[in-house]
Amino acid sequence: MIKKILNLVLLTAVTLLAQVDRSKMPEPGAAPEIKIGEYESFEIANGLKVFVVENHKLPRVAFSLVLHRDAIMEKENMGYVSITGRLLRTGTTNRTKDELDEAIDFIGASLFTSSTSIYASSLTKHTETLLELMSDVLFNPSFKQEELDKIKKQSISGLKAAKEEPSAIANNVRKVLLYGKNHPYGELETEETVESITIDMCKNYYETYFHPNIAYLAIVGDITKADAEKLVKKYFGNWKPKEVPTFDYPSVKKPATNKVALVDRPNAVQSSIRISYPIDLEKFGEESLKASIMNYLLGGGASGDLFQVLREEKGYTYGAYSSLTGDKIVGSFSASCDARNEVTDSAVATFLEVMEKFKNKKVSEEKLQAAKNYMTGSFSRSLESSQTVARFALNIARYNLSSDYYKTYLQKLNAITVDDIYESAQKYITPNNAYIVVVGKADEVAEGLQKFSQNNKVTFYDNYGNEYDPSASTIEDGVTAKTVIDNYIAAIGGRTNIEKVKDKLTSLKGSMQGMEIKLDISKKAPNKYLSVTDAGMMKQQTIFDGTKGKMIAMGNEKVLEGDDLFQLKLESTLNLFLDYESAGITPKLTGMEKIDGKDVYVVALTLPNGKTWINYYEKASGLLVKESKTMDTPQGAFTQSTFMKDYKEVEGVKYPFKLSQSFGPQIIELEVTSIRVNSGLDDGLFEIK
Known about the structure:
33% of the residues lie in helices and 29% in strands. It is globular.
């Protein structure tokens, strides 16, 4: 009996297979019908618009308050708007920050603020307490100077780290080129703009924009509309409406021909590449969905053409992607990757070739259907969250969308054709009208990039999008690497005084991400070295006895060899700069730059192992103000930069007493607490056992 059943199944399967034409792709089915959770809405007398999404599966409720305002020009005080949002969470006139934190933690709640939003959530039984805390933050911010100072310090620390990060630099220059500095999207936050921010600026922003007539409140969770209406009127009913400023900004045009922008990073081993231009695309307009699928096919992920060609076929990069963003004012397209110096121009050429080919060749039905399937899945998964329904409701209200915009999303997605993608690519992919931004080593990549601009011209920019001519900062006749180094030696005390220093113990303290750090560095002529780092639970020692080197950390020991040992030997040499030649180091004056608005000479030090250190000497004072070194790690190569200032004299020689040292995206602020010279450091201190 079982055998007969198996034979029947096999016969049926063979019959069905015979009826299927495998040469044709199956017709796509109808778009799946997905039910989107319902929401209810109401508006109270002061203009606050409220949306309620009931979900009684869990005893939790969340409140999301959003302000809908125009983009704001912050100019020389760029950063005060976002800092105002952070300040709101640092205490009220009724509670200090610690008291506010304690009250939130006591009920197991969450409360976050930004310049245009406040979000709070808790268990349903704590709803009234949560709203009392949320309304206290909204209506009674304390705006304390000491809290502003803390936030400014954190922001400046982050900016110091970012100005050494190639991707951050590339994005800075990209923004300036696309929008210009007189556009809210082209403004850049710097250490100087953050330092200029005052409490009054933050208060003024809050008083100008935090009003109910431009506010939307989404309430999601274990609550009914009737209860929500009572609570909203109780806690937000007295919020006073006020007219809020609106702004118009000039239109932004893409370049008539490709323009190449280069930021020189003398010690970079790879380039950060951005190919970008502005586009006219509304965020929720008729074209946005088609453009979104089109970009996904081009470079939205690992299956995109850019990734497949630049990584899989050419091997130029670990990943190549593109993004396409719609916006009420102006949208943008951007394609990006990081590539080795030697293939930077090839990577740029391939980007442009892939974009041109994609623009002029229709995608296959199979690829389009795969993209639709992916986006359908993403959309469907997002509906598992009630917050998604609330976000949909807010978008419909804020952007004046049709009431069925999201209900018909999958039908609109399913209706998109190959011709639609072709037309979208024709409109939004313009590889001959782009800004090509490269952050990399000019000596190795500039010449290869010339062919991508109409006049074979590469324009140089600094980290903040300011154009400059490298040849315009003329180095005076007679100035060489040797004269720059000799001036530095004279500026810190002179060769005679420096040569008197036979040993030195430097003690420093600092912090990184709130963690306190203590560091003691001992050096003894000619090249003995010991550094002891104490960062709480993490302790580390690095020792060089003149021949051997070792690192001890977390109870583990590592004997240093090869380049690691060689570099440690150089760094251990007391007053190495007095005689680079004996160490086999070749200095070369490579140009001039600006650091903090001051002219600096750039001197490249080529080591015997072929690696390069870059030193920056301030022209006016002669002092060394920055060092950059390329570090090899298991995660890849990265640049470590140290900024030095606040020179003070110790026993006839000047040393920097304030240092900022970057470690990738992290930065350590260090302050010298003491320097002892010629204290008779014992050789046993540097002994490796």
